[in-house]
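thought: user wants a sequence for this fold. calling inverse folding tool.
action: design(structure=
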């Protein structure tokens, strides 16, 4: 409300009694108190939403892989919450200005019904927008809680997948010449040409390769040919201690026994 309206208010005040002015002003002040209470309620809702976002961010930081869509939604909601917070601040500042104008009208005894009705209409409009904003924030908060549940479920699935990966061997099977050419295998005879050849895995096995098999500890898998040796970064695995191997009509069956091999890579050197 602009101060230039005050001389005009004085002209309309002549038709109103002081008692009527006081009653109208008191009623308007009561409306303003309710408006400020609604703003405070919105502020508490915004604080609650921000706390939910902080909790979600803490969970996101502890998760290695999170669905990109969830992060995008969280960022979008955070932007909307900042918008609503700014809007609520502007409304509260507007109400403060209206309150100052009302106090000035009280001191100067220049309030009239027309001006008060305009102020009341403005207050009602602000209250209506605040109620709509409050409802929107509550919807956003519920949506954040659903995202938080989905994030917790995703983290649980990732933890389960990680646990399963630690209980399996990543097996890559090929002939010796192929493994050497691909940079996986190193061979040498430390005691001379007349002694047994030693093997060593020197490069991390590509777990996403179609040729890599996942062999859970204790479960049997089939290899596509005769096996010369099973090798990890430390050398040949010991049959009976680290693995057991059988042959049937389907081929060579291998089962890893040593749980310490879980999560590591092993080469199956096939006979030429």
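)
observation: tool returned 272 residues.
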């Amino acid at each position: 409300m602009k101060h230039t309206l005050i001389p005009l208010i004085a002209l309309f005040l002549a038709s109103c009694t002081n008692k009527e002015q006081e009653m109208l002003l008191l009623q308007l002040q009561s409306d303003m108190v309710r408006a400020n209470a609604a703003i405070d309620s919105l502020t508490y809702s915004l604080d609650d939403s921000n706390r939910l976002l902080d909790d979600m961010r803490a969970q996101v930081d502890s998760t290695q892989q999170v669905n990109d869509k969830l992060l995008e939604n969280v960022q979008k909601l955070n932007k909307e919450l900042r918008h609503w917070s700014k809007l609520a601040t502007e409304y509260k500042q507007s109400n403060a200005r209206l309150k100052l104008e009302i106090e000035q009208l009280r001191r100067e005894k220049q309030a009239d019904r027309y001006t008060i009705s305009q102020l009341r209409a403005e207050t009602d409009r602000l209250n209506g927008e605040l109620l709509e904003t409050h409802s929107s924030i509550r919807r956003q908060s519920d949506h954040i809680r659903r995202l938080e549940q989905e994030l917790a479920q995703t983290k649980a699935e990732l933890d389960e997948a990680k646990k399963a990966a630690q209980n399996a061997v990543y097996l890559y099977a090929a002939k010796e010449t192929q493994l050497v050419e691909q940079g996986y295998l190193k061979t040498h005879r430390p005691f001379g040409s007349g002694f047994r050849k030693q093997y060593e895995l020197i490069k991390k096995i590509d777990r996403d390769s179609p040729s890599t098999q996942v062999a859970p500890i204790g479960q049997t898998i089939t290899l596509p040919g005769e096996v010369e040796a099973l090798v990890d970064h430390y050398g040949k695995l010991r049959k009976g201690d680290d693995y057991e191997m059988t042959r049937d009509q389907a081929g060579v069956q291998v089962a890893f026994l040593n749980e310490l091999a879980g999560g590591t890579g092993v080469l199956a050197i096939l006979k030429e």
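thought: summarizing for user.
answer: Here is the designed sequence. Strands lie at 168-175, 185-188, 198-201, 212-216, 220-223, 227-232, 235-236, 243-248, 251-256, 265-270.
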